[in-house]
């Protein structure tokens, strides 16, 4: 009986306040879309960093079948050249600047490439022979990169010496700024959503003052009286959160995985499977936001 009454009151409230309910849905949708976008940006930064950013500071690329400079005119790096480079890495002149190093074969480079660029359209067209083998080096002091560059750049068998962190530092800096902006806008929109939900529930309760008085007289409990109002906000916010989840999925599927991946084939982008981690967070945030806002509003404006 109580459940039937609560559902009846809920349906009545949704019909009477349809315009305000739609407003709550829209503002929740917009605010949580910004929250989801901020989450996507952070996931994308992590994807870009990946294996080579966090673990490697300097990469010595070795010559392969496609010569890129005068060091590679004689062809791909030979075993003797590779051993010579290993000896230089372990030499007394260079070793103090190196924390650790590892050799990556062409087959291993292909495996890492396929892992990093799983969402790129070019992943199936690249073979191991297209990628150079390399020495991945972590320096004790990143500022000493120039010493490694001067030592190895002219060494036979070496194609190039690249400081990966220097190359990506500005990109990640701008992406972090974009994330902070998205978080700030998301926080502002979330506050707006909370205020709108609270106002909607307050007006809904005030429009049914007479019904609430009757429920008090017949002995209805505080929970039975307040629950329909809380559920109104929760349902509207949940719909908004689901729409925001759909918007986040669309951003990943069509913008990041479609347009950006096609225009930047050399850049790894997160997939829709990665984005699935965000959807439950958005829905839960929407429910909590509506529940807390509604409860606070009723406590201040509906004396039971």
TrEMBL record:
One of its GO terms (cellular component) is plasma membrane. It is a multi-pass membrane protein. The chain crosses the membrane at residues 21-45, 177-203, 224-256, 276-298. Residues 56-161 form the FtsX extracellular domain. Pfam families: FtsX, FtsX_ECD. The lineage of its organism: Bacteria, Bacillati, Actinomycetota, Actinomycetes, Micrococcales. Part of the ABC transporter FtsEX involved in cellular division. Keywords: Cell cycle, Cell division, Cell membrane, Membrane, Transmembrane, Transmembrane helix. It comes from Arthrobacter psychrolactophilus. Forms a membrane-associated complex with FtsE. This is Cell division protein FtsX. PANTHER family: CELL DIVISION PROTEIN FTSX. Its main location: membrane. The keyword Mitochondrion does not apply. The keyword Transmembrane helix applies. Residues 184-300 form the ABC3 transporter permease C-terminal domain. It is found in: Cell membrane. One of its GO terms (biological process) is cell division. Belongs to the ABC-4 integral membrane protein family. FtsX subfamily.
């Amino acid at each position: 009986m109580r459940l039937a009454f609560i559902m009846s009151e809920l349906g009545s409230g949704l019909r009477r306040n349809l315009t305000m309910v739609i407003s709550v849905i829209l503002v929740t949708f917009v605010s949580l879309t910004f929250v989801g976008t901020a989450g996507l940006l952070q996931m994308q930064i992590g994807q870009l960093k990946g294996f080579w950013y966090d673990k490697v500071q300097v990469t010595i690329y070795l010559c392969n079948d496609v010569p890129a400079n005068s060091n590679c005119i004689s062809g791909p790096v030979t075993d003797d050249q590779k051993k010579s480079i290993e000896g230089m890495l372990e030499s007394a002149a260079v070793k103090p600047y190196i924390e650790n190093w590892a050799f990556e074969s062409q087959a291993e480079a292909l495996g890492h490439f396929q892992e990093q660029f799983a969402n790129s359209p070019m992943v199936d067209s690249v073979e191991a022979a297209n990628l150079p083998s390399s020495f991945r080096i972590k320096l004790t002091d990143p500022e000493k990169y120039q010493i490694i560059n001067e030592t190895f750049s002219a060494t036979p068998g070496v194609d190039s010496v690249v400081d990966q962190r220097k190359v990506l530092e500005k990109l990640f800096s701008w992406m972090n700024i974009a994330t902070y902006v998205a978080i700030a806008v998301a926080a502002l929109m979330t506050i707006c959503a909370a205020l709108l939900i609270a106002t909607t529930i307050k007006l809904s309760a005030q429009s049914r003052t007479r019904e609430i008085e009757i429920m008090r007289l017949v002995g209805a409990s505080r929970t039975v009286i307040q629950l329909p109002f809380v559920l109104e906000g929760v349902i509207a916010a949940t719909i908004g959160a689901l729409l925001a989840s759909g918007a986040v999925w669309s951003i990943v599927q069509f913008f990041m995985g479609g347009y950006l991946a096609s225009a930047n084939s050399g850049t790894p982008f997160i997939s829709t499977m990665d984005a699935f981690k965000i959807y439950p967070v958005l829905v839960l945030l929407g429910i909590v936001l509506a529940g807390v806002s509604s409860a606070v509003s009723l406590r201040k404006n509906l004396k039971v």
